[in-house]
Prior knowledge:
Radius of gyration: 37 Å
Distance between the termini: 45 Å
Strand content: 5-15%
Number of strands: 6
Structural class: alpha+beta
Largest sheet: 4 strands, antiparallel
Amino acid sequence: MEEQEIDLIELAQKVWAERKLIFKWCGIAAVIGVVVAFSIPREYKTSVTLAPELRSKSNTGNMGTLAAMAGINLANSTGEDALSPDLYPDIINSTPFLTELFDVQVEDIKATYKATLYDYLGEHQRSSWWSMILSAPFKALGWVMSLFKDQPEEDDRVLDPFKLTQDEANIAEALSQRISVAVDKKTGIATISVTMQDPLVSATLTDTVMVKLQNYITDYRTNKAKHDLLFTEKLNSEAKADYYAAQKKYADYVDGNQNVILQSRLTEQERLRNEMSLAYNIYNQVAQQLQMAKAKVQEITPVYTVVQPATVPLRPDKPNKVMILIGFVFLAGVGSVGWILFVKDLIRSWKKEENNVRARNI
């Protein structure tokens, strides 16, 4: 213990003797940290919290309660809704969903420009100075290669999610990295977050993504019910037309055969009356089915509760300038202490050994 204490005191004295070097390195690192912190563009993050309605056909009882306590959602396996909240991240990061956001109109907080989201991500993004320097050779190489290629005409090109261009694929990839969804498996509450370099663009896109996700889920759940409703409406129109035609045919026959006692005419009148009654019964049944189909669409339409709506962020989410400065100073301090205690002595021992070898050779 005495030797260990002496060694620690000796190391501390050695570090204290070189304190000017440590302060110098930390000062240089602080300046570099400030430059780096202010060179990184600001990013603003907007989040919304959405509580979807979960439907289930069967009641799982105690099993469902125990599964919820364990963080397991049984709605996907027991409910009628195959689109569980766990799939929300996959939906938002899918290519069709991302390409639908390309035409969203956005405006910066200072109202200096208005553009589509595609143009905003492609032309109005700031980057750090070192990334511009590193990408300059690749841009120059791409420009030189473009001189020897025929440029395709893209003025009349229609966006095709099945076949994206390189620029469209890059924008979609950049957009997917800026949109994130976190789902609480116990409650099913989804938190949608969007990070952009402008606070107003971030809030606008967050609200748009939330609405599009709601519409996507609503269309998925009500798709079959809406198809059934359209088919029932078609049957209702046909049944109505058939009933009106049978009614008119019966009325015309009665008007043209008044005061007639022939049995054949009475039989024909009875047949037309029966056809009119049958057409009315069919029309009545189809009309009831139509009302039920409308009620079914309304019943299965999901209801969402927006726990936390989108608001324009007032402070940037990143970069964290204080943490960057502390990180640079800490690394400089650790590096300088390591240089003093280990590297410096190691270099001295190497030089001493080389001098001894030279002396022996002489």
